[in-house]
Specification:
single chain, 96 residues, 434 Repressor (Amino-terminal Domain), 6 helices, globular, DNA-binding XRE family transcriptional regulator
Length: 96
């Protein structure tokens, strides 16, 4: 799960730089940079603050960040079939 990539993509889609998002979320720019670089996984409180600042839910960020490796082996084929549509739907809701 590369949650940082998702946060970075959402931030950029809203035309925000790291300084602006970190200020809106009440975290340091250094912390946001580490999260976006997938060097640090955000705490639940930090993820809630970032999600609120971006106007999305934590669940949407988790789902948009999922990879086939996050899914049990017996469910991977289903994931591969369903996930692209689910991700596109979330992107339309939160990015468009």
């Amino acid at each position: 799960m590369k949650i940082g990539n998702t946060i970075k993509g959402l931030r950029k889609s809203q035309g925000l730089n790291q300084s602006e998002l970190s200020e809106k979320a009440g975290i340091t720019q250094t912390a946001l940079s580490q999260i976006e670089g997938n060097k640090k996984f955000p705490s639940q409180n930090t993820l809630e603050a970032i999600s609120a600042a971006l106007g999305v839910t934590n669940a949407a960020i988790y789902i948009m960040s999922a990879t086939v490796d996050d899914v049990p082996a017996e469910n991977r084929e289903t994931f591969k079939k369903v996930y692209p549509s689910l991700k596109n739907m979330l992107e339309e809701l939160f990015i468009s």
